[in-house]
Amino acid sequence: MDLPETMNSADIQDGDEDERVRSGPLWRHALWAVLVTVTGVALGWLGALFRIGPEEYGLPPAAPGALWPYLLAWAGIGLVLSAVLRFVATRVPVYSPSEVLIGTVMIGTRLSLGWRPEPLEVTGLAAAALLLVTIWCAVALRGAAVVRRSGDASGAV
């Protein structure tokens, strides 16, 4: 069984929607990367919002400081993570790349806004997110290699 180069909506069956090769023009990949990253940053910011407001409305802020450096940092980190995921997803099927990216960026943004870490700690969080995405992509690459090998073995018999 060969991995499909491209698929149209008629080829997608019920459970295969999240696991397919994502080919297409560069602008589509860039648009996906930006939209999914913005979604992750926005959800992280919304999750941290109850800690950002004035003290009379609930919990006091976890740490003082500006929000924009952390939001911009996680937007940049999210774009790098999306580039890695999309690069692999154009070659082999990757299961739920959008959910993985949104989850890692959302958690990183939420932690950063609630804790306001120093740049070294943000780098550590970014490295952990990159490790998670790399492992996710490695599992997809390994699965595609197993499928390719089993297809070659059945074709040789």
Describe the structure.
The protein is mainly alpha-helical and 157 residues long. Helices cover 68% and strands 0% of the residues. The chain is built from 4 helices and no strands. The protein is elongated, with a radius of gyration of 19 Å. The model is unreliable at 6-17 (pLDDT under 50).
Number of strands: 0
* Helix/strand order, N-terminal first: HHHH
Radius of gyration: 19 Å
Q: Output the number of helix runs.
A: 4
Structural category is mainly alpha
Percent of residues in helices comes to: 55-70%
Main β sheet profile: none
Low-confidence stretches: 6-17
In round numbers, the mean pLDDT is 81
Shape: elongated
Give the N-terminus to C-terminus distance in angstroms.
14 Å
Please describe the structure with a list of short key phrases separated by commas or semicolons:
mainly alpha; 157 residues
Task: Please give the structural blueprint.
Layout: H1 26-52, H2 68-89, H3 97-115, H4 119-156
Provide a brief overview of the structure.
With 157 residues, the protein is mainly alpha-helical. It has helices spanning 26-52, 68-89, 97-115, 119-156. It contains four helices and no strands.
